[in-house]
């Protein structure tokens, strides 16, 4: 059985990011939701604080932090702005972690400094128009020609597709080999064969761009293949395990922000001659909200600790993602209800959080996919 303990260093990181997030990131979150402006300036400031290469080793200009520190920081950013948090999450948990795990020395020394400084924001392109929950059925191809591959295909719903500086993309190198015929590549955004397609007009996370990426005879040198040929599905699944802890952290951050806002409102708002926080109906709702958030937080920490200890954490990451993402959707609804009619307006941040949280049960694997991962692992373990 594994356990975790928050150290003084963890608490210091949390308090540093909390202060920055509430002062700087939160100040313009509502405005960004309206203008859809990508938070580039804040991401650069976050890089200065070490938040854009948090788990990248120190020798590559990273912070060398553990996953517990990372989820603490990510939750604090999500507390103020979920759009900024998802960019940070894909960049750190998926892109940096995949290069750390599968990249060679040359790739690490070329890409980590650019990523850790936020000179390049990382994106991850697995999903296609007809391959979402089932990425093995993807149609993108990569054909080897001498010292390079030629990539063709369309990727969809790519976080930071327009604003990224590099993207990890998967494509089939062997059509007949199913998941073993998929490979992963690092593609620089300025590659002339990489074209940004339409940008989605989303109900939430509006300051984080989500686009199509088209690969049109895109030439990628062999040196930029991530892992061996045929490793792409493993790269993607491993990346998503880590990414799902990140979505749990985003969920916890947004949920905590909702609870704090609901408590503040309930202590101010008067009806029937008293603060509404005096009514038992409101108090019990607040108690339930706080308990659910705490449960999700522990699942998040536990999955992060297992990852830090080098144990298999796929089941725990999916459990944390499943519970936390469904939890935050209950919490945003309850917080909005406590705010009454005002919660339905843009005068209060609850309305934005309600919209932002909706995708958490969908991206990086739907709740249904998490249940498949969890049940597959449990049933497999019981057999062995
Ligand atoms: N780590 C490493 N390897 C893994 C793995 C993991 N967590 N899970 C599976 N694999 C390996 C298996 O060991 C197996 O390999 P071998 O044959 O060599 O043993 C191989 O992958 C195939 O495994 P399965 O048969 O279980 O694969 P499957 O086709 O049935 O799919 C799935 C499994 C869990 C449903 C998977 O397809 C999945 O996770 N789907 C959801 C995809 C997803 O989350 N997409 C989100 C897009 S990214 C995004 O949203 C990012 C963003 O921008 C915000």
N- and C-termini, Cα separation: 18 Å
**Beta strand count:** 10
- What is the helix tally? 11
Mean pLDDT: 97
Q: Any ligands, ions or cofactors bound here, and which?
A: acetoacetyl-coenzyme A
Oligomer: single chain
Order of helices and strands: HHHHHHEEEEEEEEHEEHHHH
Describe the 3D structure.
This protein is α+β, with helices and mostly antiparallel strands. Helix content is 52%, strand content 15%. It contains 11 helices and 10 strands. The chain has helices spanning 8-25, 29-35, 40-48, 67-80, 82-102, 105-116, 232-268, 280-308, 314-339, 350-357, 367-383, and strands at residues 122-125, 141-145, 148-159, 166-172, 182-188, 194-199, 210-221, 225-226, 270-271, 274-275. The strands form 3 sheets. It has a 4-stranded mixed sheet with strand order 1-4-5-8. Strands 2-3-7-6 form a 4-stranded antiparallel sheet, covered by helices on one side. A two-stranded antiparallel sheet has the order 9-10. The structure holds acetoacetyl-coenzyme A (CAA). Acetoacetyl-coenzyme A binds next to strand 3, helix 7 and helix 11.
